[in-house]
């Protein structure tokens, strides 16, 4: 009978770190090989970790543990957690935050994607870190409050939601050893009830410090230091450390463009033993059997369809037979035949991972049903004589074996907690993925790959990992591009690279060539469009834009629809066919409308992918394009004017133009000394001008000045912006009068004056006549832009890079959209788009990089520093240090004026843990929050006797701003009428400087 799959839940992402295994893949290899991952500590290690000497030397102490490497490391910069907060937070909570990020990336969903409602269900073991800090006795009441928030389980789910911006339910689930599997059950219910679109289940079991265990006769800990589930030598459990996370979604919501799920949750159940057992700590066969029966009923499947069971498997001599009996009876009653179900026990490999045990077992079972490989129970020799093996549906594999059970592959997972809370989950292999044929137009097409990280070192590691993956796995480049664009968070440090093959991109990443780097601030930089004039044109110059920029084709069609059909056909060939005759394109009557169409189409296409300019400016002909983009004229009017302008100038006599490497003053002096016939055509930058005139006059002029300034002859056949253009002026004036000019909508730096024309200005038609004849004031336009938007990014919308150099000379960041003349110009256009994104410019990456499927790629390269609070270092619990007294407000006020800058900076260092501070350092960007501001206000009052309103500290968020705030309040306190030593509370508007 076909099951109703509407209630099935897909597991779409995994993450975990386990003893000796930094990731899921490492764990799976170790488990298939039957490796025991626990290790024995040296005595010196235990003492250094703070284990009391008398415990280490106790004859019953077993120095064995499933040790988790780098458990104290944390990538705090990624999560904007201050160093001080990182120190005070339980390592379990820190690891869970990283695991949540990693699992969401594995699910190919950006961890901070607010468009998806994501729930968090979190579990962790008791905080030995908190107990150590409290035992030290050095925590003042406010610090203790912070420590509680960073260590108690009540706050861990909410902290993950806060740091990642997740808006679904956030619940801490604590049922001892079964916590995380119970959390899976609750998460699935939350999904099916519509409370969220996806759910994170994350758990950690990492004691502090990681150490051995004391065996007590009759207790559950193994005196031999080996966990042997179901084995004749089973003598108890061994503890281990680990963190695990899964991402769940409704199976119906998983599309063909998503990566295949790891498996499907068919049903689950949770129960409690009640008091029908020997004691609170004892297991109950009745309770365990009941929860398995309930899970099978919830899943709607029979026992004879299950081929694998991942057990709780603690390795205790009595507990194992109880679990064996309960599971065997439940599955046999549901139809399972003898020896049908292979048994697994992860604890034999890793030790007991406490609150993370159930989730870790679930991950192992998912890999079993996904790959169809059944691992052995590590270290198993002969069965515990108390097991009822004869006729049981359960069997214990001794070596890795291929799945030979029923299909589809199904597995059960059990987890039982001290106190009697039982959980059982039933899984099925993932649905068969459907192949999607590659599109023919994708073959050989360049792709843009974007990467980001929280700091430059992490970005370098990210690039290295991706490069290796591209070379070793050879994934489809379209899929990689799409995944990185839509399945990763956009972090501050960025790079972009384009290419046609994974090997090509890997080589570029390795060599650091043809790679765009940038840093994105907290707010996007303003963008300015720059449009070029004649001289940069070449046949086929629009083809690379058409292939790389979404929407360019349609925008170009709109431009060509605005010109007569015969000209439109010539323009189309000139713009898209590199074989078009260059000398024909060089004719002014064709060059000018071609460059206009290219620039206008590029601007429209960029707007379509999210890049909107705050201002526009152009050079010569580009000034007309810029005016059109500013809204001064319609596309149709602008196209007609440009055509008329080009034809009029084509009728002018030949001339030449010469670039000079000097400023305007020297250029004018050289022109004045020339004896006439030379005009100053353009002032492009502080060190670049252009003169124009008759060919022979320019040639003679060049010969006279080349020893004094750098010269460069331009590739033009007319002396634009000189007296030789006078014959064209009447025709240009007539065409200008026909322009239907209207108020501008975007600031425009006009060539005539170099000033910014404000939005709402109606332009005089004569402006475009004077512009054709007069000097191009492009440098002044750039200066006006730099004054208005000093952090602007100038984008050159044309086939060349000349304006980019001028913008850089003006101190602005500039990105040329047009490529240099290379073998792969399409790659360069894409890289330019990536460069804009790298600088923080908003870009619709889904549009630019879309078309592929989301696939699993290497995730964030976590390698954060080690964090250990001084309060958590080993102490003598019998003689703890005395807590430092809090400063008395009146005594702290003192009689001399404090150094407010040093005082405020010192308090920031204490509260945030940052040493590298500047006046513009932002309290909240460094990890501060509203609660920490209240601590700052209290410390300030204690230090200098001034009551600083919290609201004012929140507004004056920089170090310089808060320092000025404190200084002003101290000055107010010192005024006559304020008794010395009394606290002052001055409520006032916050100054601009303080903000």
Please explain how this structure is put together.
This protein is an alpha/beta fold and 995 residues long. The chain folds into three domains: 7-428, Thiolase/Chalcone synthase (Peroxisomal Thiolase, Chain A, domain 1, 3-Layer(aba) Sandwich); 527-655 and 716-818, Malonyl-Coenzyme A Acyl Carrier Protein, domain 2 (3-Layer(aba) Sandwich); 889-985, Non-ribosomal Peptide Synthetase Peptidyl Carrier Protein, Chain A, CATH 1.10.1200.10. Helices cover 38% and strands 15% of the residues. It is built from 36 helices and 32 strands. The strands form eight sheets. Strands 6-5-7-9-1-10-17-16-11-12-14 form an eleven-stranded mixed β-sheet, sandwiched between helices. A six-stranded mixed β-sheet has the order 28-27-22-21-29-30, sandwiched between helices. A four-stranded antiparallel β-sheet has the order 24-25-23-26. Strand 27 and strand 28 (756-757) form a beta hairpin. Helix 5 crosses helix 8 (156-164). The longest helix has 21 residues, at 588-608. The radius of gyration is 36 Å and the shape is elongated. The two termini are 68 Å apart.
């Amino acid at each position: 009978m076909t099951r109703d799959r509407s209630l099935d839940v897909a597991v779409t992402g995994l993450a975990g770190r386990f003893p000796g295994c930094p990731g899921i893949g490492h764990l799976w290899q170790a488990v298939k090989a039957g490796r025991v991952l626990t290790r024995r500590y040296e005595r010196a290690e235990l003492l250094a970790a703070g284990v009391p000497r008398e415990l280490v030397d106790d004859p019953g102490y077993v120095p064995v543990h499933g040790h988790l490497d780098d458990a104290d490391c944390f990538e705090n910069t990624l999560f904007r957690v201050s160093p001080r907060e990182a120190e005070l937070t339980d390592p379990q909570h820190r690891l869970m935050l990283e695991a949540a990020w990693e699992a969401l990336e594995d699910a190919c969903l950006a961890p901070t994607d607010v468009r998806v409602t994501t729930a968090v269900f979190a579990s962790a073991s008791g905080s030995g870190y908190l107990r150590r800090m409290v035992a030290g006795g050095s925590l003042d009441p406010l610090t203790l409050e912070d420590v509680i928030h960073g260590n108690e389980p009540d706050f861990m789910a909410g902290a993950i939601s806060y740091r990642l911006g997740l808006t679904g339910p956030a619940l801490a689930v604590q049922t001892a050893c079964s916590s995380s599997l119970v959390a899976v059950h609750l998460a699935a219910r939350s999904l099916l009830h519509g409370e969220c679109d996806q759910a994170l289940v994350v758990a950690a079991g990492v004691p502090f410090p990681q150490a051995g265990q004391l065996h007590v006769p009759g207790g559950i800990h193994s005196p031999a230091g080996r966990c042997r589930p179901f084995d004749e030598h089973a003598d108890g459990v061994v503890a281990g450390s680990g963190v695990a996370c899964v991402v769940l979604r409704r199976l119906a919501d998983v599309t063909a463009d998503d990566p295949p799920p790891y498996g499907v949750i068919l049903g689950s159940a949770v129960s409690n033993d009640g008091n029908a057992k020997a004691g609170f700590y004892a297991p109950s066969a009745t309770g365990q059997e009941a929860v398995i029966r309930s899970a099978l009923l919830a899943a709607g499947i029979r026992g004879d369809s299950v081929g694998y069971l991942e057990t709780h498997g603690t390795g205790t001599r009595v507990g194992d037979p109880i679990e064996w009996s309960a599971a065997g009876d439940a599955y046999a009653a549901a139809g399972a035949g003898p020896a049908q179900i292979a048994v697994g026990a992860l604890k034999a490999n890793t030790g007991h991972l406490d609150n993370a045990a159930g989730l870790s077992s679930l991950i192992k079972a998912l890999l079993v049903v996904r790959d169809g490989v059944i691992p052995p129970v590590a270290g198993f020799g002969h069965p515990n004589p108390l097991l009822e093996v004869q006729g049981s549906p359960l069997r214990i594999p001794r070596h890795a074996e291929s799945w030979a059970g029923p299909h589809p592959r199904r597995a059960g997972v059990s987890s039982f907690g001290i106190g009697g809370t039982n959980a059982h989950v039933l899984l099925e292999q993932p649905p068969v993925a459907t192949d999607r044929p590659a599109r023919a137009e994708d073959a050989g097409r360049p792709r843009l790959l974007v990467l980001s990280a929280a700091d430059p070192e992490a970005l370098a590691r990210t690039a290295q990992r991706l490069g290796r993956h591209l070379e070793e796995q050879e994934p489809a480049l379209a899929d990689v591009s799409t995944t990185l664009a839509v399945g990763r968070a956009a972090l501050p440090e960025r790079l972009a690279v384009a290419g046609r093959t994974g090997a090509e991109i890997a080589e570029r990443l390795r060599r650091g060539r043809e790679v765009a780097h940038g840093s994105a601030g907290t707010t996007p930089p303003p963008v300015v469009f720059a449009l070029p004039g004649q001289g940069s044109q070449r046949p086929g110059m629009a083809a690379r834009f058409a292939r790389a920029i979404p929407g360019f084709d349609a925008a170009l069609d709109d431009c060509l629809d605005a010109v007569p059909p015969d000209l439109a056909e010539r323009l189309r060939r000139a713009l898209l066919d590199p074989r078009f005759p260059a000398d024909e394109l060089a004719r002014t009557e064709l060059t000018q409308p071609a460059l206009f169409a290219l620039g206008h189409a590029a601007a429209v296409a960029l707007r379509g992918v999210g890049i909107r300019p705050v201002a526009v400016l152009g050079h010569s002909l580009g000034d007309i394009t810029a005016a059109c983009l500013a809204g001064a004229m319609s596309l149709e009017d602008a196209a007609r004017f440009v055509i008329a302008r080009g034809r009029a100038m084509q009728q002018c006599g030949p001339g030449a133009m010469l670039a000079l490497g000097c400023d305007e003053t020297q250029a004018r002096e050289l022109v004045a000394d020339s004896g006439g016939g030379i005009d100053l055509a353009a002032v492009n930058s502080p060190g670049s001008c252009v003169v124009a005139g008759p060919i022979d006059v320019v040639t003679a002029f060049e010969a006279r000045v080349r020893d004094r300034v750098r010269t460069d002859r331009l590739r033009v056949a007319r002396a634009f912006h000189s007296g030789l253009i006078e014959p064209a002026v009447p025709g240009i004036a007539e065409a200008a009068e026909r322009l239907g000019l209207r108020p501008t909508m975007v600031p425009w730096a006009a060539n005539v004056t170099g000033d910014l024309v404000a939005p709402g200005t109606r332009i005089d038609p004569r402006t475009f006549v004077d512009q054709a004849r007069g000097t191009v004031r492009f440098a002044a336009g750039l200066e006006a832009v730099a004054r208005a938007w000093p952090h602007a990014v100038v984008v050159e919308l044309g086939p060349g890079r000349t304006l980019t150099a001028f913008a850089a000379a003006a101190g602005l960041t500039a990105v040329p959209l047009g490529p240099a003349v290379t073998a792969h110009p399409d790659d360069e256009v894409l890289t330019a788009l990536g460069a804009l994104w790298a600088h923080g410019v908003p870009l619709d990456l889904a549009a630019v990089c879309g078309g592929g499927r989301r696939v699993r790629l290497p995730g964030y390269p976590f390698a954060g520093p080690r964090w250990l609070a001084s309060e958590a270092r080993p102490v003598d619990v019998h003689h703890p240090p005395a807590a430092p007294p809090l400063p008395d407000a009146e005594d702290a006020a003192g009689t001399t004026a404090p150094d407010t800058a040093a005082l405020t900076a010192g308090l920031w260092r204490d509260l945030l843990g940052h040493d590298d501070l500047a006046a513009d350092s932002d309290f909240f960007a460094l990890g501060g929050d509203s609660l920490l501001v209240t601590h700052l206000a209290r410390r300030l009052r204690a230090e200098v006797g001034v009551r600083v309103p919290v609201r004012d500290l929140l507004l004056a968020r920089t170090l310089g701003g808060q320092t000025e705030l404190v200084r002003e309040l101290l000055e107010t306190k010192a005024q006559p009428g304020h008794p010395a030593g009394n606290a002052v509370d001055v409520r006032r508007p916050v100054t601009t400087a303080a903000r």
